[in-house]
Amino acid sequence: MIQRIQSVFLLLLALCMLSMLALPLWHKVDGLTHQELTMNAFGFDAVGMPTPKGLGPVFLIASAAIASALVAVREIFLFRNRFGQLKLGMLNLLLIVATFGLQFYFSNKGEALLNPKLEGQFEPAFYLPTLALMLNLLANRFIRRDEQLVRSADRLR
Fold this sequence. Notes:
The protein has one domain: Butyryl-CoA Dehydrogenase, subunit A, domain 3 (Up-down Bundle). The chain is about 60% helix and about 10% strand. The chain is built from four helices and four strands, in the order H-E-E-E-H-H-E-H. The model has no long low-confidence stretch (mean pLDDT about 90). This is DUF4293 family protein.
């Protein structure tokens, strides 16, 4: 049921996690050598320098974000099973935290590639998992509230 508020929160969560795939997450520029390094969810893009190798599987960020979006969409359509929704909400919490951790890990690895004295900037897309985390917590709160309402109605009968 899309008209429930938690469904709207879960849909926004899925959109946040999918928009991470199209936007840059981290950027660093060396003004002296005119080299640039940009990280997105699938890897690093280099300008003025050879493409970095051996940084590890950066695509794990994208796979965790896609998995989180799919879990959120699945959670929307489990509206008859609120306990199942809560379990998927906990799984989604772990996926979102994993996405954020992977972003931080690979951005730190990218810092060492290009003039370690300069500091890279986190792009706004880097913070989308934080927004998704808040939306997930709000959705879980309203799912719990629905469950309490159903239980109180059962007691009245």
